[in-house]
């Protein structure tokens, strides 16, 4: 049994991180991690590169994806899919649909900004995306934010999101989201294992409501809860650990690393805590069992 540490929730330039997939893996190795799962938003586009680098460096690797689900505001629900097959037709169709939804959102954001007297164009955003080091990344809000900064409408990327582009911002439009049933089914049909990410972000009003959500998800095939996360303090880690044990679910953990987009988060460390290799080992074991069961 490996006594090292892992990170089971991190992002690369394939979605909204700032480091390429292989560089995320190298950072994990340099940080002394024994394993990693890449969980980009709505895409598995970085998996092949990350997996190849992990194999080269001798790190344990687990494929992953993070999918946003419909959920009553002000909360958000994200489901992590571990062990998904990147070549699955089901997953390919899903990610194409979700990325097209992001593309449909971009012109709405531009139009709203123009209505607010913030004059940028879609062409400028496209040029920003092409010129960026991560030019293979789908065009999205980070590129809009970069144009706003370059043209002097904001003083930082953070201000661009806080004022205009984040939920509650003046030019925010939601992206297409799956129902939790759809997300769970898609992950399972792609050979993956659904895990509830950062349950704090559900913003449930009571413990009873949280338990109802987890029960509903388990009935749909949930196999785990992310107990350790950068948003979770010691009391929450303990609380979510008890819930996982009560519902017979695996415990997972990750930093939710995004590179310089979240400068206060370090790969492999979640609010001062490390994620034990045993969490990854349990996922890998369950994945093998599910594959044998067919």
Task: Explain what you see.
- With 294 residues, this protein is of the alpha/beta class.
- It is 45% helix and 13% strand.
- It contains ten helices and nine strands.
- The chain has helices at 21-30, 47-57, 89-115, 122-131, 141-150, 157-165, 180-189, 207-219, 234-247, 277-293; strands at residues 5-7, 35-37, 60-62, 64-69, 77-82, 193-196, 224-229, 250-254, 275-276.
- A five-stranded mixed sheet has the order 4-5-6-7-8.
- Helix 9 links the parallel strand 7 and strand 8 (250-254).
- Helix 1 (21-30) runs parallel beside helix 2 (47-57).
- The protein is globular.
Compact summary:
The protein has 294 residues and is of the alpha/beta class.
- Average per-residue pLDDT, rounded, comes to 92
pLDDT < 50 runs, ≥5 residues: none
Distance between the termini: 26 Å
Order of helices and strands: EHEHEEEHHHHHEHEHEEH
Question: What structural class do helix, strand and pairing data support?
Answer: alpha/beta
List the helices and strands and how they pair.
Layout (H helix, E strand, L loop, with lengths): L4 E3 L13 H10 L4 E3 L9 H11 L2 E3 L1 E6 L7 E6 L6 H27 L6 H10 L9 H10 L6 H9 L14 H10 L3 E4 L10 H13 L4 E6 L4 H14 L2 E5 L20 E2 H17 L1
Parallel strand pairs: 1-2, 2-3, 6-7, 7-8
Antiparallel strand pairs: 1-9, 4-5, 5-6
Helix pairs in contact: 1-2, 4-5, 5-6
Task: Give descriptors for this structure.
single chain, 294 residues, alpha/beta, TIM Barrel, DNA polymerase, domain 1, 5-stranded mixed sheet, 4-stranded mixed sheet, globular
